[in-house]
Amino acid sequence: MVEIELKIDPAFSSIKVIIQAQALDAQVEDLMQRISEPQPRLLIGFQEDRVEILDPAEITRIYAAQQKVYASAARGTYLLRLRLYELEERLERDGFLRISNSELINLRKVKNFDLSISGTIYVQFQNGEHTYVSRRYVTKIKSALGI
Prior knowledge:
The longest helix has 11 residues, at 26-36. Strands 2-1-5-4-3-7-6 form a 7-stranded antiparallel sheet. With 147 residues, it is an alpha+beta fold. Helix content is 18%, strand content 35%.
């Protein structure tokens, strides 16, 4: 459980955040990271002549194709102007996981993983899309899922 206490005092010239916890665990580290994160969590996507703000929660997968990076979302496919490794770092805490050298998936949009295919994993998304985990990433994915 997280307890929040707010103290407003005109004597303070800046904001000060104090985290008190029994131990430095993953939850505390995540909270510290979120508080100190300087970059916005939203992404800018380009579609034809439009620029749209994308909420990572709406994105199913992000993939590289033909030297460009795209995001697949409910409203369509968008061109992104960030590199895949930059997106991986930015979206890791939002439930995104790299499944190949050219693709990240949003775990919150996955319907199921099919492990029956020898040496790889078939990923089925809630919207009907699908993809495969590359052989090189199978062990990492199983570890991340606790399998």
